[in-house]
Each structure stands twice: as C-alpha cells, then as structure tokens.
Amino acid sequence: MRSWSRAVTAVLAVGVVAVSGVWVASAGESSAADEQQSLVEDFAYPGAARILAEDNVKLVSGDGHIVYAPCAQQPVNGIGVIEVRSTDFSVGKNDGLVCFKVLGDTGSLVLLIPDVFEIRGDGFGSTPGHKGTAEVKAQSGESRTVVLNPNGSQQVGIGRPNGVPETLLKLEVKP
User: Fold this and answer.
1) Any bridge partners for residue 85, and if so which?
2) What is the C-alpha to C-alpha distance for residues 146 and 155, in angstroms, rounded to an integer?
3) Least confident of 9-13, 100-104, 117-121
C-alpha cells in the first residue's frame, strides 16, 4: 500500500511541476494589448487628421501651448487669438482665415498653411499680446523667420511689397 501511495504522490508531484511550468511559460508571453504605451511624448498634434479633413489645415506637432481655435472667440482681458490669413480659401472655415489660441507664456506649433499673406497678433486695445515669430518658406525653398506684431498685423508672402507666395511652417511665442 505504501508503494502505491508513493507512486500516486510522485505522479501528482510531476503533474504539479508540469502544470506550473506551462503556467509560468504562458505568463511570460505578452500580447500587444498587454504592452504599456510609450511614456515618451512625440508632440504629435491631437486631432490633426480630423482638422486636416475638415479645415484643410495641417498641424504637425507642438508643445500644447498654441492650439487650433475658433476664430469667433472673443478676447478675454484683451487677449484674443492669433489670426492667420491665406489666399487659399479652402483653408479654415472662414475663407482662408485660421486662428490659434496661446495657452502659456511660451509655445511652439509646427504646421503647414499655404499662401499665407498676413498674421495678426492676439493683443487687442492697450493689452499687449504675445510676442512671437513665424517661420515661412517661399516656393523657391528659401525659409525666413519674421517677428510678429503682438497687437497688429505682420505681412508675409504676397502681402509684402514684391512678395512671393509663402507657406507658414511654424509659430512660436516667447516672453
């Protein structure tokens, strides 16, 4: 009887070890759903595909401090939105007018808006708007950086005397 119980005990022990090994091996496998998302920020603009489809504005990346905004927003404490005007009337919802709200003291937004001719700062009245720059690129490939007027308009592209069509590549604000 003892040999029989030893045999059963041995078989059970082998079975437990075998099942444990299978369980441990399968626990080591991970599926794509189990993997953790990357914690590295890629600065891709959220909702960029929808904005491109609806408003023909290509937003590439940014730090979240300059955001695409409705142009009808009223100024709050003298600060409104940065207005970008293009001769391409398929851009934006208002015949070539596209607007951006600044949400911090600094900000950066990489984008593509063709045929830009004017960029207006976000300050109204005596309240100073955000200081900033815009990077534009001519069809010839020549890029340049222009200083924005915080409370007025800056002419770019064909808005300048003897100007050529330019694409807006980047907006930045700094104190």
Assistant:
1) 97, 118
2) 9
3) 9-13
- Rama region for 51: left / alpha / beta (φ>0; ψ in -120 to 50; rest): alpha
Which residues does residue 167 pair with via DSSP β-bridges, in sequence order?
A: 137
pLDDT at residue number 94: 76
The whole-angstrom separation of Cα 152 and Cα 41 is: 34
- The length of the chain is 175
b vs e for 129-156, b when ≥16 Cβ sit within 10 Å of the residue's Cβ? bbbbebbbbeeeeeeeebebbbbeebbb
Residue 78, both tokens: 């003298």
DSSP the chain: -HHHHHHHHHHHHHHHHHHHHHHHHHHH---TTTSPPP-S---BPTTHHHHHHHH--EEEEE-SSEEEE-TTPPPBTTB--EEEEES-TTSTTTTSEEEEEE-SSSEEEEEEESSEEEEE-SB-TTS----EEEEEEETTS-EEEEE--TTSEEE-GGGSTT---EEEEEEEE--
Q: What does the alpha-carbon distance between residue 58 and residue 111 come to, in Å, rounded to a whole number?
A: 6
Q: Is 17's pLDDT higher than 90?
A: no
